[in-house]
Amino acid sequence: MKVMIIDQKGWSKSIKVEKTITRVGTAPNNDIQLHSTQIAPVHLQFILSPDLPSSCKLVNLAGEVSIRADHVKQQLPSFGTVDVRDGDEIELGEFRLVIKIPLAAEYVQTTNVVEAVLSFPNAVLRPGYATRGQLTIKNVGSQTECQFKVALSGLPADCYHIDPIPLLYPDAQEDVLVQLFSRGYYPKAGYHDVFFTITSPASYPGEEMIIKQGVYVVPVFDQALEIADDMPKQSNDSGDSQQPEVDLPIVEVELAEVPEAKYPRPIPASKTSVKKEPPDTKARIEEVPAQEETKVLEQSQDKAQPEIKVMRNQFDDFWEE
Question: What are phi and psi of 289, to 5 degrees?
């Protein structure tokens, strides 16, 4: 996109606009600086979108400005927005800003026998979508039953389609549908110039009209996701796994003879007798020294044998006393 700046004295300058947001005003940090008392420090903003390269959005950040679009003048109030296209003019103070968008139709060659107008609202080619435009052809010559032909160059043959044009009488016109396509991997992404050549060899030999139209092809990104298994595959019983065969070395091992083990004969259960000891017998036996053992026996005998007295009758005890 280009902005042509023209002052009241006829001085002009063309500035190329490539940033997404371009500021216009009197401040020195603006992208386009204009010196005027009628212009604010930051007065306008141009907003470009890669998806809509055939137009741009204008934002008014200060006082009211005038815009002339299609020969119609309108006012843009403060903080208002509007879409501007190729050829629109903006009146800002003592300056006029003319918009030049590369995706606009441009007449390369004209003729006196045919008039044509090419219009593409959005000259952007996207995969899977048809970019539609309109070509209006008018027979301004004197030949009757004139058959016009349209040839397109700048795109592959399978990337466009033009409807047939009927016979045109003098001062008759016809609207023709033009469709452009992107096949994904072609045409090449970016800006392209497409040329429309209008002729009528039978009625007007040697006469032709050429119109240039800029188009933008949106890039296509081919992405793929692959998940690799970092674990080794295990072979199953069916043998379906395809593991690479590895030649392993063969090792020969000599086995030594082991003598036959001899085990004792088992004892019959009927002849086996087990003598069980009472539980905790050993735990209750305590070792006692010899001397202490004798004392213990004497004491036990004294306690165990009390004095026995024999009485024959009840009077024996009386006489002994």
Answer: -60, 160
d(CA 72, CA 82): 14
Domain end position, chosen among 61, 79, 100: 100
Sheet holding 21-25, edge to edge: 32-33, 21-25, 44-47, 56-60, 81-84
Does 275 reside within a domain? no
| 57 and 142 fall within a common domain | no
| Continuous H helices in the chain | 281-284, 290-304, 316-320
Q: What is the pLDDT of residues 43-100, one digit of tens each?
A: 999 998 766 666 788 999 998 899 988 778 899 999 999 988 878 899 998 999 998 8
CA distance 318 to 309: 14
Angle formed at CA 178 by CA 177 and CA 180, multiple of 5 degrees: 145
Residue with tokens 């208002």: 80
**Structural domain of residue 188, as residue ranges?**
106-217
Does residue 42 belong to any structural domain of this protein?
yes
Q: What is the CATH number of the domain that holds 35?
A: 2.60.200.20
pTM over 0.70: no
